[in-house]
Amino acid sequence: MRYAETGFNLEIDLSRGSIEREATDPKDTELYLGGLGTNAKILWDRVPPETKPFDPENLLIFGSGLLCGTPATGCNRTIVSTISPQTLFMAFSMMGGFWAPELKYAGYDKVILRGKSPNLVYLWINNDKVEIRDASHLKGKGAGETAELIKKELKEPKAQVVSIGLAGENRVYFASIEQGRSSASRGGLGAVMGDKGVKAIAVRGTKDINIARPAEYMDLCKEVLEYIKFRNDNPIPGVMPILAGLGSPQEMKVHDEKWHTENFMWGNSRTRRKDFWNKEIAEEWMKTMDSMRRRLISCYNCPMTCGATIQPPGLPTYIMKCFTKLTYTMAAMSNLEFGLGIAQSATEYGVDGFSAPQVMAFALELYDAGILTDKDFPGMPADNEGRFYWLLDRIVRREGIGDVLANGTYWAARQIGNGAEKYAHNNIKKHEQLPLKLSMLNPIYFLMYCTGEKINITQIEGQFPQAPFLTREEREAFVKDWFQVPDDKFKQIFLDWEPRGEKSMPFYPNVQMCCDIVDWQERMHYIDDALGMCAGLSSFPLKPPYHIHNYPKFISSGAGIDMDEAKLTQAAKRYRTLVRAINIRRGMRRKDEKPPEDHWKKRFPELEKELMDTYYKFKGWNEQGIPTKEYLLEMGLDFVYEDFVKRGILTDNGDPSSKGTPPEKDKE
Amino acid sequence: MEILPPKVLRRKKIRNKAEGVINVKAEKKKKTVKVININADKCNGCRACEMICSAFHAAPKYSSNNPARSRIRIIREPLRDIYVPVYAGEHAVAECAGRDKYTIDGKEYEECAFCRASCPSRSDFKEPDSGLPLKCDMCEGEEMPLCVKWCTVDALTYEEREEEVAEEEKPEDIEIGLESLANKYGLQKIMDAVARLSQKG
Questions:
Q1: Are residues A388 and A450 in the same domain?
Q2: Which of A381, A296, A291 is nearest to A337 (CA)?
Q3: CA A337 to chain CA mean position, Å
Q4: Mind listing the pLDDT tens digit for each residue in A118-136?
Q5: Per-residue confidence (pLDDT) for residue A668, from 0 to 100
Q6: What sections of A398-510 are H helices per DSSP?
């Protein structure tokens, strides 16, 4: 018997209309755990670098985490992986909600889509019965609307549905996959789903998930729940409110937006409004939120209420999550009422709440600069808010300038030319980033921005405080019950870390310490993404209930795989390397690993070079960021090494190939 | 007053009836009333209650979980702000003659939404494989029902209270029948009839 996982994947070929239930190899679970880990293995094995995002051979994998559907609180994430049309690298966005546990209860760990359906279809997975059904009547419908219509049509209110809106159908490069409470938004996964002709996947499952050593596992689960209660009652002093507690930042609960509105950039990530927040605005925004917010809600088996149902006046209710609360507001230099209103349309259309507002602000900046002109915007309203609604409509329909903008700022700028590239200034690896522009280089964040392959800072940061505490007493108090650290050296680094003077940024923590901190933070995210755990209870917040010390016990007693900290660390390194290998094979090199040019005003080129050199070495990568022969063999990834040699990426003796870096890949 | 065990009491009651006096003084008894308070306004729809219920009732305990086997169900429709925890009650062999459908605060609930019965009209509160009915047992042996323990948003809270209840003796069917016959014909006639019938063998 397989424990925690079901041991079966659903393989669906949309070109042929075939559905197969395939047993998976338990050995792969041991090596790559599940979720992201096994997704990466499948992409490596089956999607060669010659395959383009919109080729039928590209796969779209919906993977549940290894522990999803078990009693572990907050373990509910679906990890969606494919090759991104925007970055041309591996995209893996995660969503919480209810879908992954339901898939497990239906008897599957993953749904793997290949090929392309000639007509728009949706999938209905009802335990052992799996159907490909016509979705022509759902064409053009909103993502949430589609989910409701499907549940009604199937007479199955308990079904869980993932769906795309118009943006996905029209292959907008930043289209999301929506799931009501949650969405997989980054990397343009919705575009690949639309390209495959799949409008939605509905799942209903009524089978058991088994636990290897139940009593032991439940004790761990109870401990976690108790610790969550403790942390909810004892927020961390000395940090801003959104970092003091657990969960994803409590954007739906917190009214005080002084920090975001005054530290993040407005417009096309340009303007910092240092004295923006005042009493009148605080009151107005609180009134807006109170009048539109119906209820704080959670994902499956989690008490954290990070999301909320929002009902803008005269519009249908939708579910808001996290920072999308402010991204439209700030891109349009508007107010919260506008932001919550347009987010309703954006959620139904199914677009990424980070990329979409920036793309629109970028377009209007080009208009103001005269690079785009009136003839590019025929019929655009004169008012600011109206323009954003108008642009959103053009983008998701790919009409006129919307067809260009739908590819994201990087590709749109190249297409528009005439100096537009300068305006696509907030990207990493062609992907729009959070609108942050800061003064002095932060070496820890520098490494994370450069080398993070999720290409999203919130999905790599966490665990270690973002800034030093003012006094030694405060620091001592903080480290006292900081048992989550993998090694006590992290406590010492934090204790010695001063806001000013010799032991302060950017030279303290020193280069080696930065490598350790970044590596720890990244590793916890990668473990979460394989187990299906929400980062909000693990890798993202300070002092989380899940950590490197209890995770091996969860895996051992839950999945029945003998695990200890060393073995778990090794597994996480293994599939993290595999993700990198997939991207290396697609041409990613050191030149791609850099933050937006203007992210920090004060840069330290020599320090930055040292950071990158040291970190690459520390990770087992050569100076181009390619995993070395020794490291690949140590990880048991001999097949990656062999492939690298065959492709001339590494030579027989493990040196980097003299062929050097491949030319910049162009648009399909 | 002398406390009689139930059987003696019953005989005494009949004797009293025979004398034409119906005067049974009920005994007071302490009873523990277990109450789960459901505050639907606080429900966040996470379904941890469904998960832990099915895990607790798995055999061996916690060896598996499957919300479809749960004895609590969250009626959950986020976009219409509907969140109602409902517990499995008695099994009904036949469905009701009609259905009910509630509208509360402008929100229309599905048919039979609040009904606790496992009944032929729907799949709720039945084992998914066998179709056998499920019923909440308040997690016997635990300090409180586990759904309550896992509901950290306090949509479910638990309360136990002692109540003094009169232990009412329910008359048996035959007594009810005899009493109405006695009312109609008089007790003596009936006793005669019983005597005649018993002689016939």
A1: no
A2: A291
A3: 26
A4: 999 999 999 999 999 999 9
A5: 38
A6: 401-405, 408-416, 443-451, 472-480, 489-496
Q: What is the pLDDT of residues A19-64, one digit of tens each?
A: 999 999 999 999 999 999 999 999 999 999 999 999 999 999 999 9
Asked if A25 and A67 sit in the same domain, the reply is yes
* Residue to substitute from B41, B46, B76, B151, interface A, most A β-carbons within 10 A: B46
Cross-chain Cβ contact B110/A319 below 8 Å: no
Check whether A464 has a pLDDT greater than 70: yes
In a domain, A222, yes or no: no
Task: Looking at the structure, tell me whether residues A495 and A400 fall in a common domain.
Answer: no
Q: How far apart are CA A594 and CA A512, in angstroms?
A: 19
* Distance (Å, whole) CA A480 – CA A485: 11
The label of the residue with tokens 């879908």 reads A99
Mark whether A471 and A418 lie in a shared domain: no
Dihedral pair phi/psi, residue B84, rounded to 5°: -135, 115
Q: What is the CATH number of the domain that holds A453?
A: 1.10.599.10
User: Is A443 in contact with A509 (CB distance < 8 Å)?
Assistant: yes
Contact state of A309 with B55 under an 8 Å Cβ cutoff: no
Instruction: Count the neighbouring beta carbons within 10 Å of the beta carbon of residue A365.
Output: 19
- Tell me whether residue A660 is in a domain: no
- Cα–Cα distances (Å) from B56 to A204, A216, A218, in that order, read 22, 14, 10
Q: From residue B182, give the alpha-carbon distance in Å to each of B174, B175, B187, B191.
A: 12, 10, 5, 9
Helix (H, G, I), strand (E, B) or coil at A531: helix
A657 touches chain B (CB under 8 A): no
Instruction: Give dist(CA B149, CA B154) in Å, integer.
Output: 9
Q: Which B-chain residues 8-37 have CB contacts (< 8 A) with chain A?
A: none
Sequence letter at residue A314: G
Predicted confidence (pLDDT) per residue in A516-573, tens digit? 999 999 999 999 999 999 999 999 999 999 999 999 999 999 999 999 999 999 999 9
Helix (H, G, I), strand (E, B) or coil at A12: strand
Domain that holds residue A251: 237-354
Which DSSP helix (H) or strand (E) runs through B37? strand B27-38
Determine phi and psi for A132, rounding to 5 degrees: -100, 115
Selecting from A180, A206, A210 the residue whose C-beta is nearest the C-beta of B78 gives: A180
End-to-end Cα spacing for chain A: 45
What digits encode the pLDDT tens for the residues A430-446? Answer: 999 999 999 999 999 99
